Amino acid sequence: MEKNRRDRIERAAQISFVMQEIRMAGLSDPKEIADALNARGIEDLRGGKWTWIEVLRFDKRPKERSEPSKRADWTKR
Predict the structure, then answer these.
(1) Which of 45, 62, 68, 72 has the CA that lies 20 to 30 A from 8?
(2) Spatial contact of 30 and 56, defined as CB atoms under 8 Å apart
(3) pLDDT for the residue 66
(4) Cα separation of 77 and 75, whole Å?
C-alpha cells in the first residue's frame, strides 16, 4: 500500500473518531458538526475549513479498504 493512501486512511479514521465523539456529545446537525470540527482546529480532507456539505460528503464516502477494489471482469477492456 502506498504511503499517500495509508496517510489518507489514517486521517479519515482520525476524523471519524472525532465526529463520533461530537455526535455522542449530542450534536447531529451537519452544520453543528462542522462548527465543532472547526472549533477544534481540525481541517477538512483538503486542508480547509469544514462546511455542512463537507460533513455530509465525508459521511457518504465509502470507507477505505485495506485492499484496492477489484473491477468486474466485464468492465475490463
Answers:
(1) 72
(2) yes
(3) 44
(4) 6
Question: Where are the extended beta strands (E) located within the chain?
Answer: none
Q: What global pTM score does this model have?
A: 0.73
The radius of gyration computed from the CA coordinates of the chain, to the nearest angstrom, equals 15
Q: pLDDT: is 7 or 68 the higher one?
A: 7
C-alpha distance from residue 64 to each of 2, 16, 41, 58, 73 (Å): 13, 12, 24, 11, 22
CA-CA distance, 65 to 1, in Å (whole number)?
Answer: 11
The CA distances from residue 77 to 60, 68, 73, in Å, are 29, 18, 9
